[in-house]
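User: Reviewer 2 asked us to show a designed sequence for the structure in our supplementary figure. I'm pasting the structure tokens here. Could you produce the per-position amino acids so we can include them in the response letter?
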């Protein structure tokens, strides 16, 4: 009887600990991950963190070198309503904002109309639109102080997210990814947001989830002191205590692709050991991370393949998922790996225009 008992016990144990999409019985997942299904990407992350934080491991990473970089839009903040937050905000600013639309420069209006035509009619955005938008956005908010721009972003973020019920733009964080932030912080990692969006937009959107402003890298425009003339060099101007910092219309950098790597190198000064993204604009950052010759490293790509709870193009997402796997990245499926995306009470709806 003993000979039969032990094999049955082993089989029973395997059934209990196997991959379980519903996660009803899942002793593998720790309590930090209540919003995930058991999946390859999460298992890989846990194995990585366990290994590199073990002082007895050959792959041990000192706490000061545990750097994790995260893209923002589409990686832990929604981008399908119906497009990026900063695109939506520029469209509103140039075409609808009663305080600005009548004085918006023609090239700013044109970029905003390109966005409107894209989201309402499906018209293809012009080539190199990333840069066209960046130059237009620099102009659209020029003259605002840091505090005024922060307030403007947060006011727009408080609007209901287009295409969803029960959620504002500012609440559109992927709840499972917030658990990843907490998990990494609990294990001594420093998390940086490295986004193509404006740095100060990113700061406004991540403030509520506890990411400090000095941990945010993004698109940058030049600032000046409020009493500094436009043709006066900052090295010649002496700022006084009653002056503010003011946005100019001069773009410094659009933080995409290799620019992300350059900014990480300049601002962090260390090569990340973990990298998270969702698009080709993040591949350079991932490859930089995986090139780390000092420590073990890993990169993760999230694919928007959930067309029930989000406005996803599932076929495109699955093709990208295969592409990312072939590139050596772990793939996170929003449909299969997330128990929820935006949390309870949020429903996908038709877009309204």
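Assistant: Here is a per-position design you can include in the supplement:
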């Amino acid at each position: 009887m003993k000979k039969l008992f032990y094999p049955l016990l082993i089989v029973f144990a395997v059934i209990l600990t196997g991959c379980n999409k519903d996660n009803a019985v899942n002793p593998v997942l720790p309590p930090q991950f209540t919003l995930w299904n058991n999946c390859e990407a999460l298992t890989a992350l846990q194995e990585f963190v366990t290994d590199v934080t073990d002082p007895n491991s050959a792959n041990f990473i000192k706490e000061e070198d545990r750097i994790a970089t995260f893209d923002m839009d589409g990686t832990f903040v929604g981008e399908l309503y119906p497009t990026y937050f900063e695109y939506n905000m520029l469209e509103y600013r140039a075409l609808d904002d009663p305080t600005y639309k009548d004085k918006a420069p023609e090239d700013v209006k044109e970029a905003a109309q390109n966005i409107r035509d894209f989201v309402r009619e499906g018209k293809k955005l012009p080539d190199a639109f990333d840069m066209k938008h960046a130059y237009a956005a620099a102009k659209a908010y020029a003259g605002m102080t840091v505090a005024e721009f922060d307030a403007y972003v947060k006011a727009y973020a408080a609007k209901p997210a287009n295409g969803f019920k029960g959620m504002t733009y500012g609440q559109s964080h992927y709840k499972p990814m917030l658990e990843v932030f907490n998990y990494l912080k609990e294990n001594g990692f420093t998390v940086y947001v490295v986004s193509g969006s404006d740095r100060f937009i990113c700061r406004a959107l991540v403030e509520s989830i506890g990411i400090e402003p000095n941990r945010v890298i993004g698109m940058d425009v030049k600032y000046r002191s409020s009493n500094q003339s436009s043709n006066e060099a900052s090295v010649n101007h002496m700022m006084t205590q009653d002056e503010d910092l003011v946005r100019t219309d001069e773009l410094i950098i659009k933080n995409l692709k290799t620019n992300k790597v350059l900014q990480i190198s300049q601002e962090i000064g260390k090569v990340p050991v973990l990298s998270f993204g969702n698009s080709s604009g993040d591949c350079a950052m991932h490859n930089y991370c995986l090139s780390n010759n000092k420590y073990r490293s890993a990169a993760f790509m999230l694919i928007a393949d959930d067309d029930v709870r989000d406005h996803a193009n599932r076929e495109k997402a699955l093709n990208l998922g295969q592409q990312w796997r072939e590139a050596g990245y772990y793939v996170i499926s929003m449909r299969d790996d997330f128990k929820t995306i935006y949390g309870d009470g949020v429903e996908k709806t038709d877009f309204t225009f």
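For the response letter, you might also mention the following. The two ends are 71 Å apart (CA to CA). Residues 1-27 have pLDDT under 50 and may be disordered.
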